[in-house]
Amino acid sequence: MQIPYGNNQDINKLALIFQNTSASYKFFFFIALLDSVLDKIKENQRPLILLDDISIKMIVLAWYPALFFKLNFGFSDKISSICHTIQNKYKLSIDTKDSDIYILLNEIVYKDKDKELKSAIKNLLKYVPYKLLTPWTPHKFQCNATPNKYIFDNFLSNFEVNKGLYRIIKKDKDLYLDINDTYIPYLKSNFYILKSFAYYHLCVYLEKLNAGVPNISTKIKPEILRDSLTDEHKVFDEILNITPLCSIFNESIIIDKNNYALDHFIPWSFILNNSFYNLSPLDQSTNSKKSNKIPNEIYIEHLSSLHYSIVQYIAHGQISKPKNKITQSYEDLCKCSFDTLIKVDKSNFFKSMHNKLAPLIFVAKDSGFDVLTDDDIR
Question: What does the alpha-carbon distance between residue 101 and residue 118 come to, in Å, rounded to a whole number?
Fold first, then answer.
């Protein structure tokens, strides 16, 4: 992905900031930096940004991808482990609001609520602010593992020699990023493009570490809205009016047609869609216990049997013709038109269902999703 040309900026060097990246830090750092610059501009302030504020924003940005979607950031990457530590230590939900995470992190970093975590958070930025400036850093510093600290610090803090995106300065024992005036108009006018540029490279990085995980590009951005299941509920309402259904996880539990939930067999937080063949009605208690857990592969047959019956109900006009998205879901599953699909026998329908869901179960378990237990479905 390319970034727009600039007038007085060295855009060729800015375009190289994500070269030779071995952890997620640079991506989250740059996104947090962009957000901070825009905040300062909106407040009519010079973009002088406290480095600790950047580290807090990085953790908030990583929270959903790491905890809710359980993406692997890499073995040596510490952002994900910090998110998990905070969640477990302070008993936070995986879908805790950003504002609540900000409040807690500010207490940890600025009010010494948790000195151990504070140290871990501050360590996130031990190297990345300097590494991001690599395209502008003279070769003599890049080749020297231990450059003269005084000379290097002087370079980093002086715009006369450091022509990069920002300089790093110290004020009252705190480190700040002082954005180069040359780049401020460019960052402001190309904010969304540059943010997309960072997310694109983050996605490429994470795809290598999360083979087989669907929709990574959607899972790395905040505020993902779930589509309504109103149309899907209407189909099951009609079916429950003509025949009783039992839970696909426990045949002894009969679904109450007036009080049931629609469950995503493979959790929505893994696949990020409402494919109809992945849905089944559950009693409220089982649905709550299942949450975003991964079921055993044996239950694919039960789900397949349910949906094979639904296809027959539709084919024989026993229920109203559903919305196109529902029949298209079955077409995507079996890779044929719905007219052809209604002639598919039960064993081949199950084969299509198993081929679709079994690999997702394997990858989801490997990604760290909890497994549905017998106690959950009793």
Answer: 14
Residue 15's pLDDT band (boundaries 50, 70, 90)? very high
d(CA 257, CA 113): 49
pLDDT higher than 50, residue 327: yes
CA 257 to chain centre: 34
**DSSP classification of residue 44:** T
Nearest to 341 by CA among 302, 303, 321, 314: 314
Task: Please say whether the beta carbons of 363 and 213 come within 8 A.
Answer: yes
Structure token digits, residue 287: 């649905």
Q: Which residues are paired to 48 by β-bridges?
A: 178
The chain-wide mean pLDDT, for the chain, equals 89
Q: Is the pLDDT of residue 297 over 70?
A: yes
Q: What ranges do the domains of the chain cover? A: 11-219, 230-377
DSSP 64-133: IIIIIS-----TT-HHHHHHHHHHHHTT--TT--HHHHHHHHHHHHHS-S-HHHHHHHHHTTTTHHHHTT
Is the distance from CB of 5 to CB of 13 less than 8 angstroms? no
Whether the Cβ atoms of residue 367 and residue 213 lie closer than 8 Å to each other? yes
The answer to whether 261 touches 281, Cβ cutoff 8 Å, is yes
How far is 137 from 163, CA to CA, in rounded Å? 9
Tally DSSP H helices, then E strands, for the chain: 19, 5
Which tokens sit at 345? 């026998």
